[in-house]
Design a protein that fits this description.
Oligomer: single chain
Radius of gyration: 16 Å
Bound molecules: 5-O-phosphono-beta-D-ribofuranosylamine
Helix content: 25-40%
Shape: globular
Structural class: alpha/beta
Number of strands: 7
Strand order of the largest sheet: 3-2-1-4-5-6-7
């Protein structure tokens, strides 16, 4: 598996992937030059790349450039680990079934545009839900709608704040994402290409 991890922020999921011991990361790509994720990758000798869609002449030019960067490194799998930009449709199409995203709720609940970060956990608590969790799903052209590969539940405590719930979900994410990537790796390695 040649894996690109896309991350925009803190990168604790990237760190969990780097630390799990059996998953190699080929390149870490960010839209944000200041992302801590880039420093985490760099510290482990993983190549980093900043691609900010806003600096390209158009979405199509950006998409072509991104595709080229992935293909030139023979990337065959993509993990979105806290990546805050939509993946262009042409890249989704080129990597269909090979792009995974992690989301901090039990999708399809509390997903979609605007449902990211602390907003998710606030909405979960406001709904009165008794449990939450994390989901790894395949990426399609919409936000958080692709087929679900793995989910793990976490309890909600009566005194939870959005922040305390976020922490509990995040710690589950750190084992869930490597598990999902191993499943995808297994299917890639055991599928005969036609
Ligand atoms: C995680 O909660 C993930 O589910 C969401 O963004 C957050 C990223 O956290 N997509 P980190 O940057 O990996 O610490």
């Amino acid at each position: 598996m040649r894996l690109a991890v896309f991350a925009s922020g803190g990168g604790s999921n990237l760190q969990a992937i780097l630390d799990c011991g059996d998953i190699n990361v080929t390149v870490c790509i960010s839209n944000n030059a200041n992302a801590k994720a880039l420093a985490r990758a760099h510290a482990r000798g993983v190549e980093t790349l900043v691609l900010n869609p806003g600096t390209f002449a158009s979405e199509d030019v950006y998409a072509a450039h991104l595709l080229c960067e992935l293909q030139s490194r023979r990337v065959n799998t993509v993990a979105l680990a806290g990546y805050m930009r939509k993946i262009p449709a042409s890249v989704v199409a080129a990597f269909r079934g090979r792009i995974l995203n992690i989301h901090p709720s039990l999708l399809p609940a509390f997903g979609g545009k605007g449902m990211y970060g602390i907003h998710v956990h606030r909405a979960v608590l406001e709904s009165g839900a008794r449990q939450s969790g994390a989901t790894v799903h395949f990426v399609d052209e919409e936000y958080d709608t692709g087929p679900i590969l793995l989910q793990e539940k976490v309890p909600i405590h009566p005194d939870d704040t959005p922040e305390s719930l976020a922490q509990r979900v995040l710690s589950v994410e750190h084992t869930l994402f490597p598990r999902a990537l191993r499943l995808l790796r297994y299917t890639i390695e055991t599928t005969i290409q036609s």
